[in-house]
Amino acid sequence: MISVKRLGLFSSVLLLALGSGCSSSEFRDRNSDYHKAEAASYTLPENLAQRDAMPIPEASGHRISSAQQAPRPEPLRVLDEKEGVVQQRADEQGGWLLVTRSPSEVWTSLQAFAQSQDVAVTSSNPRQGQILLAADTASRLPAQRISLRQGVRRGTSEVRLHSIEDQQLLPFSDYDRTRMMSMEAFLVTSLTEGGQSVSLQAQSLHSNHSIRLVDRDGREVLVMQLEYDRAWTELVHLLEDEFNDDYQRLDDLNRSEGRFYVRYVPQNQRPSGFWSRLFSRAPAADAHNYQLFLSEYHQELDLILETAQGVAAPEAVETELLSWLERQLR
To answer: How high does pLDDT run on average in the chain?
Structure first.
């Protein structure tokens, strides 16, 4: 005889099974649909334009022959801190400092230097990179302005100091030079100590100037988005440092014409190895002479390589030397 308890349990299971079977669902089981699948064919309209949805554009400029060998990569030239974290430079505007740190790092040290001086700080603008020191009325010395901006190469800064009067820059003086030397010593100490802080506001001073090699009318041109003075000064220091042997040498320069007179022997014509260089003869004095010509072009600067004024250098030498300059200046 079935107990009432078991009968109740059996009834509950039966009602649950009937309810589940009778319930409706908007989701149909499609697990077996692929057994009944049939192949389908579609005919495109005859007037439908046939074209590549993702066409590959034609390459511009000259192509490198497969027979040519790619040159070995050269290490990027970086400023050697053995010469100092802060280096003195000079141009037509007077002396200035090249610092191997970013502007956001240098700014905090410049602020500390300005506050340590015997004159008041009348204004300080990290976004413009300018600090104005008050005039020394007791000694009848003018006000001075400290200016900070990014250097030509990444991770460097340029610091200038000039006396000003009636919002006009005065010629660089011994007074400026004395304070700049004090600033140099202060920056060296400050930037070489641990825990150097960074100014977020001064990060706006990081410029995105571009130095790029382009193919223009079949010639390689090094385009520089820089002021003429900055580009000229950086090229002078680079060539004086690196072009100092029989295979690459800076012979002369003419700033008024924007020309560097150099000797440059292509890499494939140089002896390889220590013993080859030791016993090889130096190139003839009248061979491998070129001119680097810096000129303004549509609010940019163009640097081209010539064998003589108006005469293009051989394409292989042009590409090799200008590519090397691009890598060093980036």
So the answer is: 80
